[in-house]
């Protein structure tokens, strides 16, 4: 089957084509303007950040060679020729890794518990008072905007070197990040159960416990598991500022050029992170499955 | 009432099996928490004395004060440098991650091996913390903000590659099929079929990351990769607490400003459908 495409007469077509061209031209002009703005910003930023492509080109060969060097032992042999020598500090590193995981666990759980409490005070639909809501929101914002490591640095002064400073930094940051997410979850609940319970004369905390909490618990758990993944990574670098965990040994190895140690610790961290990620994702999918079944 | 009770016995048993399991899990989590707190030294005296000292420190931090005009100016310059690091790193990562994202997307790359390799390498890049990348780049280009920008770029290629590939996989197939049926090549299908559809989503993700990278850029200075972090770590270590709080305040204001600007831009780009790409 063949059809002929109807063409408009030239006189009618011309204004249409002109309008089409004009619209394409204006979009192109807009795109060009956008690109120009980005380019100017890039140039200004490059000046400020002391970017020098020459230095990069001159030294770029060091990047692969540094990474390759990580996988050679002190005697010049590749690391896999002598696994025992590569992981010579395995016991110590495993202990530090366990400490890192515990830091992440304790920090996540304490932070999540605090955030769960604060979320009900910060959610617009159930908050008991306007001022508490504003104050709690600002507090959460402060906790998540100041980077974890800055809290860790401050806590190291107050609590001394060691994992406690790291845990508390994780707690504060988790509280800030989860407080916001949890409050958003609470704001999206169905208010009818809460109203029903309140109408029987129950006080606020009872209405929250039986009206709101059952609706939000699975979402809270799922966000907490996601946060745990993030916090494992975070806890692994807490040691950079002396706040416990495997980071301490890692930065020492990097600074003192113990190449094979760096790769050994990095490999251990990567494996741990991968295992934790897959475990939590299995748990989260189970949780979603449970929710779908009910 | 008895009829209801007979029909739904599971709603009237106080101790159902599910409840036992739940309580068991909660108890196990709680015991692990206690064990962890014990291991990390929470039950010694350090916690209490530390909290006391923390209040003392907080008291000493007020009011925020840069100390001298010269300090304030140095902090301002460092802050601009921080934003510059974040901007450069984010944009460079976005440009480099775009092709990788297409390689890792199921609907673009039919080759399973290529896709697998692209995804695994993205995962590996993402698992290494930004501070570690900073330390590695310092070995390559020396101390300074350039190393910081490169570190942010490297870390973000991992995140962007994953996010971009997911956005591309979620794209509508019909425009691509239309282009293929009109005789367009595979590459043309990507350029005219997928790219216009995903570009706003990708751009909003890039903006979102720019904001979070500004936060990261404030700490990479702690390991010597430029930006305000160096001043901040120095002020904390030398116990110049009023300067510390001044710097923190400056960071908060900057991050809030960038937050406002980037969310305005995001709204302008994707319309009022907030939340996409987060």
TrEMBL record, chain B:
Residues of the ABC transmembrane type-1 domain: 79-262
TM regions (residue ranges): 20-43, 83-109, 130-153, 190-210, 217-233, 245-268
Bilayer topology annotation: Multi-pass membrane protein
Pfam family, one: BPD_transp_1
Annotated localization: Cell membrane
InterPro entries assigned: MetI-like (IPR000515), MetI-like_sf (IPR035906), PhnE/PtxC (IPR005769)
Superkingdom, natural source: Bacteria
Keywords linked to the UniProt accession: Membrane, Transmembrane, Transmembrane helix, Transport
UniProt similarity note: Belongs to the binding-protein-dependent transport system permease family.
Name this protein carries in UniProt: Phosphonate ABC transporter, permease protein PhnE
């Amino acid at each position: 089957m063949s059809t002929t495409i109807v063409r408009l007469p030239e006189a009618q077509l011309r204004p249409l084509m002109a309008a089409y061209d004009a619209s394409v031209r204006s979009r192109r002009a807009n795109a060009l303007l956008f690109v120009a703005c980005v380019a100017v910003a890039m140039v200004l930023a490059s000046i400020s950040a002391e970017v020098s492509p020459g230095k990069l080109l001159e030294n770029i060969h060091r990047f692969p060679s540094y990474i390759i060097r990580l996988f050679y032992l002190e005697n010049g042999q590749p690391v896999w020729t002598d696994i025992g020598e590569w992981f010579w500090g395995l016991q110590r590193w495993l202990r530090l890794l366990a400490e890192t995981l515990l830091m992440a666990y304790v920090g996540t759980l304490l932070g999540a518990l605090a955030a769960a409490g604060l979320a009900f005070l910060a959610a617009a639909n159930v908050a008991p008072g306007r001022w508490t809501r504003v104050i709690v929101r600002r507090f959460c914002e402060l906790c998540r905007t100041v980077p974890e490591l800055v809290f860790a640095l401050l806590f190291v002064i107050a609590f001394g070197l060691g994992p406690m400073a790291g845990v508390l930094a994780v707690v504060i940051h988790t509280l800030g990040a989860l407080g916001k997410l949890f409050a958003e979850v609470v704001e999206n609940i169905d208010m009818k159960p809460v109203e029903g319970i309140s109408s029987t004369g129950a006080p606020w905390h009872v209405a929250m416990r039986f009206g709101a909490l059952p609706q939000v618990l699975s979402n809270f758990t799922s966000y907490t598991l996601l946060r745990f993944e993030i916090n494992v990574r975070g806890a692994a670098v807490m040691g950079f500022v002396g706040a416990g965990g495997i980071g301490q040994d890692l930065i020492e190895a990097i600074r003192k050029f113990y190449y094979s140690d760096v790769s050994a610790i990095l490999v251990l961290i990567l494996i741990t992170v991968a295992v934790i990620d897959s475990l939590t994702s299995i748990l989260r999918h189970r949780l979603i499955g449970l929710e779908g079944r009910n | 009432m008895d009829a209801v009770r007979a029909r739904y016995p599971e709603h009237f048993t106080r101790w159902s099996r599910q409840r036992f399991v739940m309580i068991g899990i909660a108890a196990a989590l709680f015991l692990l928490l206690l064990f962890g707190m014990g291991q990390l030294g929470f039950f010694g005296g350090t916690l209490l004395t530390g909290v006391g000292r923390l209040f003392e420190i907080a008291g000493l931090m007020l009011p925020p004060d840069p100390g001298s005009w010269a300090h304030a100016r140095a902090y301002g310059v460092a802050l601009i440098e921080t934003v510059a690091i974040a901007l450069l790193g984010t944009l460079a990562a976005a440009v480099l991650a775009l092709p990788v994202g297409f390689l890792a997307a199921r609907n673009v790359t039919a080759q399973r091996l290529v896709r697998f390799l692209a995804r695994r390498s993205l995962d590996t890049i993402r698992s290494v913390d930004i501070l570690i990348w900073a330390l590695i780049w310092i070995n390559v280009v020396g101390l300074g903000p350039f190393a910081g920008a490169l570190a942010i770029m490297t870390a973000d290629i991992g995140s962007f590659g994953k996010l971009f590939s997911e956005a591309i996989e979620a794209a509508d197939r019909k425009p691509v099929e239309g282009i293929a049926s009109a005789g367009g090549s595979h590459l043309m299908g990507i350029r005219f079929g997928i790219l216009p559809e995903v570009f706003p989503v990708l751009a909003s993700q890039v903006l979102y990351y720019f904001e979070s990278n500004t936060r990261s850029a404030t700490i990479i200075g702690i390991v010597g990769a430029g930006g305000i972090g160096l001043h901040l770590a120095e002020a904390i270590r030398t116990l110049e607490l009023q300067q510390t709080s001044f710097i923190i305040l400056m960071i908060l204001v900057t991050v809030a400003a960038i937050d406002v600007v980037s969310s305005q831009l995001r709204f302008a780009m994707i319309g009022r459908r907030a939340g996409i790409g987060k």
